[in-house]
From TrEMBL:
GO molecular function: DNA binding; sigma factor activity
UniProt name for this protein: Sigma-70 family RNA polymerase sigma factor
Keywords: DNA-binding, Sigma factor, Transcription, Transcription regulation
GO BP of this protein: DNA-templated transcription initiation
SUPFAM superfamilies reported for this sequence: Sigma2 domain of RNA polymerase sigma factors, Sigma3 and sigma4 domains of RNA polymerase sigma factors
Lineage of the species this protein comes from: Bacteria, Bacillati, Bacillota, Clostridia, Candidatus Ornithocaccomicrobium
All copies of domain RNA polymerase sigma factor 70 region 4 type, residue ranges: 90-142
Record organism: Candidatus Ornithocaccomicrobium faecavium
Pfam short name (any one): Sigma70_r4_2
Residues covered by the RNA polymerase sigma-70 region domain: 2-66
Length: 152
């Protein structure tokens, strides 16, 4: 369960800018999964099912934060640096966050979390072809953003 929890946290960290929100999203996803465990039809797909719950929770948190930010129009930005992160990790996170969600999610789930294309397709409710294309396009966009960062 610890390995699964770490995967969830890593995924949330790529989707959400604030560490506290990541922790909240993982905790809420685990709680919702526990409450809905009887709705899981195929226990072999538990991890993909749980990841789908987390992604939905992250999206909901982002919507809430956006609505709150728009209404408040104030607040300080949190420092997103991770103390023990390797050189370039923050640039990579920033480049990933800058990608449109439709490219970022498949790329993150497949490359960073190691899910197969078919699992990513189920999680995101897309065809396998669409997932493959979005991973390909996401890589291109990410590479271009990182090359641009190096030039600056």
């Amino acid at each position: 369960m610890r390995a699964c929890e770490q995967k969830l946290y890593n995924t949330a960290r790529m989707l959400l800018p604030c560490q506290a929100d990541c922790e909240d999203a993982v905790q809420e996803a685990l709680f919702k999964a526990w409450a809905r465990l009887d709705s899981l039809r195929d226990t072999g797909r538990f991890e993909a099912w749980l990841m789908r719950i987390l992604i939905d929770e992250c999206k909901m948190l982002l919507r809430r934060r956006r609505a709150h930010r728009e209404s408040a129009l104030t607040g300080a930005e949190e420092d997103f640096r991770v103390p023990d992160a390797p050189p370039g990790a923050e640039e990579m996170r920033a480049a990933l966050r800058a990608l449109e969600e439709k490219y970022r999610l498949p790329l993150l789930l497949h490359l960073a979390e190691g899910f197969e294309v078919v699992e990513v397709a189920r999680m995101l409710r897309l065809s396998q072809g669409a997932v493959k294309w979005r991973i390909h396009k996401g890589r291109q966009l990410l590479r271009a953003a990182l090359e641009q960062e190096v030039r600056i």
